[in-house]
Amino acid sequence: MEAVAVAVGVLLLAGAGGAAGDEAGEAAAVRALVARLLGPGPAANFSVSVERALAAEPGFDTYSLSGGGAALVRVRGSTGVAAAAGLHRYLRDFCGCHVAWSGSQLRLPRPLPAVPGELTEATPNRYRYYQNVCTQSYSFVWWDWARWEREIDWMALNGINLALAWSGQEAIWQRVYLALGLTQAEIDEFFTGPAFLAWGRMGNLHTWDGPLPHAWHIKQLYLQHRILDRMRCFGMIPVLPAFSGHVPRAITRVFPRVNVTQMGSWGHFNCSYSCSFLLAPEDPIFPILGSLFLRELTKEFGTDHIYGADTFNEMQPPSSEPSYLAAATAAVYEAMIAVDAHAVWLLQGWLFQHQPQFWGPAQVRAVLGAVPRGRLLVLDLFAESQPVYTRTASFQGQPFIWCMLHNFGGNHGLFGALEAVNRGPQAARLFPNSTMVGTGMAPEGISQNEVVYSLMAELSWRKDPVPDLAAWVTSFAAQRYGVSHPDAGAAWRLLLRSVYNCSGEACRGHNHSPLVRRPSLQMNTTVWYNRSDVFEAWRLLLSAAATLAASPTFRYDLLDVTRQAVQELVSLYYEEARSAYLSKELRSLLRAGGILAYELLPALDEVLASDSHFLLGSWLEQARAVAVSEAEADFYEQNSRYQLTLWGPEGNILDYANKQLAGLVACYYTPRWRLFLEALATSVAQGIPFQQHQFDKNVFQLEQAFVLSKQRYPSQPRGDTVDLAKKIFLKYYPRWVASAWE
Q: What is the pLDDT of residues 126-142, one digit of tens each?
């Protein structure tokens, strides 16, 4: 039972992250975090120390809180991460503060509250993991060190002790490929552009929207060194990349007899950009290439002995024979241990979830059994909705981390399965012969639905679920806004029972609202919740605005709920327009379509423009700021525009990474909707059928024009969020109440 997980965890600890580390250095890192977070003056009221002996069981992080009142607040942790998590606990539960991506609420009471006696907390999870390979592209791709520093602080405060650190790996691969005899032109042809590197790293793509400029490699190496240094200062374990078996086509020129298999296409891309080449596991080049890369990587960056690699991510292996799958898996692992005898392989378990028809019991056993037990650490990536541990006998005895995926593509849209998230880790821990050794947050994109991540971070330090989620979200709102307000609390309880109450295997945090999809007559507008709850939560937040409007986090949430309400209205007006078209009622079609495309969407763009977190201009400026020349800035901006929209030269994964940003709504979604509604109106007026295929051709021209455009957008907010939200509310809420939509 639980002893199995502990035993496996001990094996992992012996091989990875087991060094005693620098207690004084980790304490200094946390003290510096306190000063960055609170300012030097308030930080002087805190005493921070790191003491390994605080953990009753080695490897299970523990913190202790005491003091306050007339004395210093004393924060002790068994690691720097544990001390940071203890600090966060004090700020949240004793001071009513809140730390978040969208901004923090850090109004400290005076004097600082006293901790009754001494509060000691030990996590039941050896590992608290963070990130998804895709997060590197959907959220982190254009970050500078200042933004990374804030994220690593957020990670420490939320108790994260295991995270990917994958920046700069292409620079290392470039060294290896050049040493093997590939030309610079061949290497440039292989790498994707920056916004698509995640899928190049997993073998799904090559070439697309590349090449990588020389300056990119230099900057990423510098960034990776700073990221690793800061993570290690806190006592975190960075996960470095390893060789998964995918190689450039040019490897066949250098080694004409090399045994490679060309994989199938991925994501509707043709073989110009996908169909990667996979080295045969028995080819003598495999261990040479794998060990060359890891040796060069660890020489540059050092190591903490955990490495990530994904050979068959969303790609069907060349053979379903267990012997082949075992050999392919063993080859990856053996290339790791040839360089690092203590290597542990972190594997995203998405492959088993994504293609369950291929991955039968024999195939799963072949992969999981090809690595010594305890040397493969599996991320059960989508465990809150579709856990794999339950159908693989706890990953055949290999240790695993129960992960919440939650978000796809970095989409905006209120979504969560909080009840499943709340119950999931405990259920996995109590599963017969469970080998669960941690919890994780693995979103494809961040900076959305912060309530979900706050809950998951808290659960990583709890043995049991939160007993009363309604009370928990009420407290969450009070901490987030700095004051308790009955209407704000009531609004959050409504959101909890609606948008944050998705249940079942169909729950996916991927926004398919008509607002952000290419229009058609077959769009699905069904939702898992009662829309009335969203509109009532909107009303309640606006009623609280007189008291809470000074809070930036409140304004952010008011905008986010307003955005959600407009998203619901778009669906409802679309249904009206579609019904009118099918009934050939031109006047009704023009009325509903006119409101949707000429009133509602412009109003949405205007309110989004009032908050810096919802600006296309900021998004694109972030990309441009990485560049060292105007031409490079244009290239990075086009990369970013492609990812947000077409996701390929022909709309290959169209709108997968959709966002609701001021500028994107006005110049991408709105023109599409106007073209669609005009086409429907022409069809009715002239008595000719609407041709979806022709519309798709026409609208692609608009979509492509947006990607190739050089138009600049504001990167500073304009207008008042509360006033603009009220304006939309007063116009549309009475229509909602009076309509038959409910």
A: 999 999 999 999 999 99
Q: Are 334 and 341 in contact (CB under 8 A)?
A: no
Domains of the chain, each with CATH number or no CATH = 23-122 (3.30.379.10), 165-371 (3.20.20.80), 547-738 (1.20.120.670)
- 277: β partners: 247, 262
Q: How far is CA 35 from the centre of its chain?
A: 27
195 to 143, 147, 648: CA distances (angstroms): 12, 17, 11
Which residues pair with residue 65 across a beta bridge?
Answer: 75, 119
- Among 359, 404, 399, smallest CA distance to 382 is for 404
- Residue 439's CB: how many other CB atoms inside 10 A? 29
| CB neighbourhood size of 3 (10 A) | 9
The token duo for 566 is 């407009």
Phi and psi dihedrals of 561, rounded to 5? -75, -35
Fill in the DSSP letter of residue 662: B
Residue 532 CA to residue 538 CA, distance in Å, equals: 10
Nearest one of 452, 399, 278, 319 to 11, comparing CA atoms: 399
CA angle at residue 695 from 196 to 578, to 5 degrees? 110
φ and ψ of 48, to 5 deg = -120, 135
Q: Is 482 left (phi over 0), alpha (psi -120 to 50) or beta?
A: left
Between CA 16 and CA 594 the distance in angstroms is 60
Q: What is the pLDDT of residues 640-689, one digit of tens each?
A: 999 999 999 999 999 999 999 999 999 999 999 999 999 999 999 999 99
Q: What is the 3-state secondary structure (H, E, C) of 358-400?
A: CCCHHHHHHHHCCCCCCCEEEEECCCCCCCCHHHCHHHHCCCE
Q: What was the pLDDT predicted at 347?
A: 98
The H or E element containing residue 573 is: helix 552-582
User: Is the distance from CB of 106 to CB of 97 less than 8 angstroms?
Assistant: yes
Distance of CA 69 to the CA centre of its chain: 39
| Helix, coil or strand: residue 72 | coil
The answer to whether 402 and 383 are in contact (CB under 8 A) is yes
φ and ψ at 731, to 5 degrees? Answer: -80, -40
CA angle (369, 373, 376) in 5-degree steps = 80
For residues 57 and 714, give the distance between their C-alpha atoms in angstroms, rounded to a whole number: 53
Q: Within a 10 A sphere around the Cβ of 342, how many other Cβ atoms? A: 16
Q: What tokens were used for 131?
A: 């990130």
Q: pLDDT tens-digit profile of 614-631? A: 999 999 999 999 999 999
- Sequence-separated (6 or more) residues with CB below 8 Å from residue 383: 389, 402, 403, 404, 405, 424, 428
Confidence of residue 7 (pLDDT cuts 50, 70, 90): very low
What is the pTM for the complete model shown? 0.97
Residues composing the chain:
742
Per residue in 676-708, pLDDT tens? Answer: 999 999 999 999 999 999 999 999 999 999 999
Lowest pLDDT segment from 63-67, 234-238, 257-261, 352-356: 352-356
**The residue to which tokens 């901004």 are assigned:** 103
Q: Which residue has the tokens 């692609």?
A: 700
Rg (C-alpha) for the chain, rounded Å, is 26
Task: Compute the distance between CA of residue 147 and CA of residue 622 in angstroms, rounded to an integer.
Answer: 10
Residues 6+ positions from 600 with CB-CB distance below 8 Å: 566, 569, 570, 573, 732
Q: Is the pLDDT of residue 15 over 50?
A: no
In this prediction, residue 738 carries a pLDDT of 79
* Local structure of residue 650 (DSSP, 8 states): T
pLDDT of 410 strictly over 90 = yes
Give the integer Cα–Cα distance in Å for 601 and 732. 13
Report the C-alpha gap between 441 and 163 in whole angstroms. Answer: 10
List, for residues 357-405, the tens digit of each pLDDT value. 999 999 999 999 999 999 999 999 999 999 999 999 999 999 999 999 9
